[in-house]
Amino acid sequence: MSNTYDCLVIGCGFAGSVVSRELAERLGKKVLIIEKRNHVGGNMYDLFNKDGILVHKYGPHIFHTNSKRVFDYISRFTQWRNYSHEVLADIHGKLVPIPFNLNSLNMTFSFEKAERLKKKLVSIYGMNTRLTIAQLRGEIDPDLRELADFVYNNVFLYYTQKQWGVTPENIDPSVTARVPILISQDNRYFQDKYQGMPSDGYTVLFEKLLDNPNINLRFNTDASKLVSIKENQVFFEDKPFKGTIIYTGALDEFFDCKFGRLPYRTLDFLFETHDIARYQPKGTVNYTVDQPFTRITEFKHLTGQNVSGKTTIMKEYPKAYTGAENEIPYYAILNEENFQLYKKYEQLTKELSDFHLLGRLAEYKYYNMDSIIERALILADEIICDEKGND
């Protein structure tokens, strides 16, 4: 059966699905997607719960991008609900916008102090700019240092400890930089040009994305049971495979963690349905100074559903990933030691012909949704260019 397919793709999230569609559509490749779970969409999968409310099973996902190519590409497979995500932080019972901005400033300091801080921030950094907590903590001005201490202690410190299990100083700066301080009155969590939610949900989007006669799907299948490497040769169902392979799963697990397990953080989700129309004022509220969970998401804000009298929320509890059954590795713990361990696994794939690593798990990196779509499009471009160049 292995010669039936020109391409094997392991994983059915955006990475695997986009590259599969491109190779199937533009090159006419016969593609087999091997997926461990029983559904399309990877962590973007959504479904209607028993109360008829559309929920994101693996945590909230909001589409946003500055890439016209990415937006136009995904727009082939969905209409959009106009939605700009706003997040609030519960700081000792007061809800303030996150990322921390000038509106947050006005809500947490006296009028006189807030005005003084605003003038200093604008003078040094300018309006509509972004800075990291590390930048602000480096200021010598006592007012700005007081602001930095407030934001650090009330927005970053405990939340980071819950999310990552360590203090911000022990996390790669690229991680904490994803939640900037904004010198603006824009309460949107993202400032990208294109923002929205798939009007019929992510699962329907993926079903359309994968609707191509050259794409076959095999669910409930662990790729390591079908795909193996022997003497720098890939085998599929115990036969040599000469085609293209795109691997989007956890790279250490593909090699049975032979050098040790790559550290990740995982999440436990607690879903609750309440007999009220709305639970909270915005789609997400972060709990930055108390509670064992990091945030609560209320899905009706995201989807725009008008299910009267009921609403479903989800609480997120981060913890260390152990590889136990039903655990999902969500966030790579980025530091030099872990990167060097990853490189040992990556090296095992270097001598393989036409074997490509793509995505958060396979590359041990953090990617936003739009970034991985763009990475998949670029990889498809490269494969197609190489193939046509060899014709």
UniProtKB/TrEMBL annotation:
Its cofactor is FAD. One of its GO terms (molecular function) is UDP-galactopyranose mutase activity. The keyword Membrane does not apply. Keywords: FAD, Flavoprotein, Isomerase. It is an enzyme of class 5 (isomerase). Pfam families: GLF, NAD_binding_8. The keyword Flavoprotein applies. Residues 155-366 form the UDP-galactopyranose mutase C-terminal domain. GO terms for cellular component: cytosol. Its EC number is 5.4.99.9. Belongs to the UDP-galactopyranose/dTDP-fucopyranose mutase family. PANTHER family: UDP-GALACTOPYRANOSE MUTASE. This is UDP-galactopyranose mutase. It comes from Clostridium muellerianum.
